[in-house]
Amino acid sequence: MRIKFITLGCKTNQAESNKMAQELCNNGLQVTVGEADLYIINTCAVTGVAERKSRHEVSKITRNNPDAKIIIMGCASENDSTQFNSDNVIKTFGTDKNGIIKYVLETAGATALRIAQSTSESMDSDVHRTLHGVVAPVTRTKTYIKIQDGCDNFCTFCIVPHLRGRATSRPINDIIAEIKSISPHQIVLTGINLTAYKDGDKNLANLCVEVNELGIPFEISSLYVNIITRTFIEKLSNCKNFQPNFHLSLQSASNAILKKMNRHYTSEQFEDAVNRIRQAFPTSKISVDIIVGFPTETDDDFMQTYDFANKMKFDAIHIFPYSPRKGTIAASMKQLHSKIIKERADKLKELTVH
């Protein structure tokens, strides 16, 4: 049985898929990047577009390979498993993925097939899809390590805490042991809300110090800006193996909109944090997420965000047209017309052309 992973959404999903692929390979199964007998789709639900793309993957597989079996897992199936009803879909798992390996091994049967490729060759050379369908290579030199799951922030636009649950963290010893066992060339520490990482009295900065001692280059994925304190930056600056690539969730530079989003910072605090990074790491690259068209966002609110992004000269801007998520507070607010949202997204894209 040939098995192929298709992963949508965040780097945490990528880390989960890679780890499961490794486990399957260790059990003698064949993980491939080509045509397969069994497809495992790790879905995303952060936007309506993401869920639609998750459903599209099922349609594409069944169209090209009518005999294929499909397993669905992840946030979109946790949000609504019925959207994946298909004769080819044999099982859905949601965000609780603990039983997937056992189920796949039982489905594959007792006779294990040879390992055609190692996971580092098959999964890391495959592609992952961003929320907007851009296909980007996952380099062989980066290995995603999931250190944390869940979120307690409950931003008014975000459904993830409802699907992933409360914030939980892996023990540092467990993380270090995993890294040592796979000997990666480069690490990306990832999670749903890395800012919430906690192991007893140790936080993300303490974890970074211990990861640094392994002598392997490492990065950190998306951060909530409140963690960018002087102490945090000082500890990172003492980590010689840290790669200063920062991805920060800005979402808006209008303080009024940030408050309605339940984001606990102001644009002024965000600017201070960015300046703190650039002072400590002059060669750092900083990318941000921005949501356009949040409910009640006025032209002035949007222009505050546009002018802020223009002034800050971020290395990359990931633009997310607002998408109402059922069950969130923002979904019950007065929504903007889709035409206005598109116009604002198109205008913000002007700043991404260098």
Please tell me how large the radius of gyration is.
21 Å
The secondary structure category is alpha/beta
Strand content: 15-25%
Q: From N to C, what is the helix and strand string?
A: EHEEHEHEHHEEEEHEHEEEHEHEHHEHEH
Indicate the multimeric state: single chain
Model regions low in confidence, pLDDT < 50 over at least 5 residues: 110-139
Largest sheet: 5 strands, parallel
Order of strands across the widest beta sheet? 2-1-3-4-5
| Helical residue percent band | 25-40%
Question: How many helices does DSSP assign?
Answer: 13
- Count the beta strands: 17
Any idea what the shape is?
Answer: globular
Mean of the pLDDT scores?
88
Distance between the termini: 46 Å
Description:
- The protein is α/β, with parallel strands linked by helices and 354 residues long.
- Helices cover 37% and strands 20% of the residues.
- It has helices at residues 11-26, 48-64, 75-79, 100-108, 119-122, 160-164, 172-182, 204-212, 230-237, 255-260, 267-280, 299-312, 338-349, and strands at 2-7, 30-31, 38-43, 69-74, 89-92, 127-129, 135-137, 143-146, 148-149, 168-169, 187-190, 198-199, 202-203, 218-220, 245-251, 285-292, 316-321.
- The strands form 6 sheets. The protein has a 5-stranded parallel sheet with strand order 2-1-3-4-5, with helices on both faces.
- Helix 2 (48-64) links the parallel strand 3 (38-43) and strand 4.
- The model is unreliable at 110-139 (pLDDT under 50).
